[in-house]
Specification:
single chain, binds zinc ion, alpha/beta, about 350 residues, TIM Barrel, 8-stranded parallel sheet, binds adenine
């Protein structure tokens, strides 16, 4: 068994983690108090809060996994709306950004791409660029203090309109706020169906204006969403992508094009995408020659951290230390860090 201290010591990047999924319990409690808000229930653990009935689906259950409470991914996304709604001032935004970098450093992460989806941060509606600047100030301060360096992947929500997506990218392209290096799309594929066509224009503009591209696909939907990410959204990486395993032609395409999958094994199990480690396709993705990175997704509400996720993944699949060193090296190459930073991290 590879211990967590060994994993922490490996120089590595993390490329699939949501800022919204990294708030510590104490940070949420402080934010709530600062805003005079109440938690929806007792706060013994962060998991208690995320799975509270207040975030369950209004009518019928969406049938999420057992570990995620009754609400699964969509209930989890409602929790994120509530939590991020507590961040209202630039100082509060900078503080959660700083805390993220500190959290990454504690896991031995030297560079991280972080997904930020402003639609969850409802106090910043219409002020998304101001949010990006406030977060960037926190990331700057963290880096000056020697903590993990960060690039932001600004994420569109799968359910937002085509026009609002184009507008968001056009605004980013002219404002170029701070640490934003990439455009992303996330949210529940099961609720919206295929969204490749809808976001084609936004991602075409992102590519034309020099933003990197990463797309959530093949998590709560099948291989179709991954094909769309490649063909319609010019994705350079896929977030999750695990269900690509259901389509051999797609696996061949991912391998041939060197598209890496930002796999989050523990998230997949906790959110009920797979019922057991035996069902998880990670070994089959690797056997097909697909590039894979190992990530947490939403470590705080899922009750985990990067070194614990890597350790349990190594244990479940029998990966040796050399394999884990390989994952660490691949994470740096797959990141959107610039060439100088990559060279320094190698
Ligand atoms: N936003 C935060 N976590 C997510 C996930 N696992 N899937 C889709 N959107 C998300
Ligand atoms: Zn994700």
């Amino acid at each position: 068994r590879i211990d967590e201290a060994t994993i922490r010591a490996l120089p590595k990047a993390e490329v699939h983690v949501h800022l919204e999924g990294t708030f510590a319990l104490a940070d949420i409690l402080f934010l709530a108090k600062e805003n005079g808000e109440y938690l929806p229930g007792p706060a013994a653990t962060l998991f208690d809060i995320t799975t509270h009935d207040a975030f369950a689906a209004p009518a019928v259950s969406t049938g999420g996994g057992a570990g995620a409470g009754a609400a699964g991914l969509s209930g989890f996304l409602r929790f994120l709306d509530w939590q991020c709604g507590l961040v209202r001032t630039p100082a509060q935004a900078a503080r959660v950004a700083y805390a993220f970098a500190a959290r990454q450093s504690a896991s031995g992460v030297r560079y991280s791409d972080v997904i930020v989806n402003p639609t969850h941060w409802n106090a910043w509606r219409g002020r998304e660029i101001a949010l990006m600047r406030a977060l960037s100030a926190g990331f700057d301060e963290a880096e000056q203090d020697g903590l993990c360096a960060v690039g932001i992947a600004y994420s569109l929500l799968r359910s937002q309109s085509a026009a609002s997506a184009v507008d968001a990218v056009a605004t980013l392209a002219s404002a170029r706020p701070g640490h934003v290096v990439a455009i992303s799309v996330d949210g529940d594929e099961k609720v919206t169906g295929r969204t490749g066509e809808k976001f084609h224009e936004a991602f075409r503009l992102a590519r034309a204006t020099g933003f990197r591209r990463t797309v959530h696909a093949g998590e709560s939907s099948g291989p179709d969403g991954v094909w769309d990410a490649l063909d319609l959204l010019f994705a350079e990486r896929i977030d999750h992508g695990v269900r690509a395993v259901e389509d051999p032609a797609l696996l061949a395409r991912l391998a041939a094009d060197g598209i890496s999958l930002g796999v989050c094994p523990r998230s997949n199990l906790t959110l009920g995408i797979y019922r057991s480690w035996d069902e998880h396709p990670l070994p089959r993705l690797l056997a097909a020659g697909v590039e894979v990175t190992l990530n947490t997704d939403d470590p705080a509400p899922l009750g985990s951290c990067l070194e614990a996720d890597w350790a349990v993944t190594a244990e479940q699949f029998g990966f040796d230390e050399a394999t884990m060193i390989g994952f660490a090296a691949r994470s740096i190459e797959a990141s959107f860090a610039d060439d100088d930073r990559k060279a320094a991290l190698r």
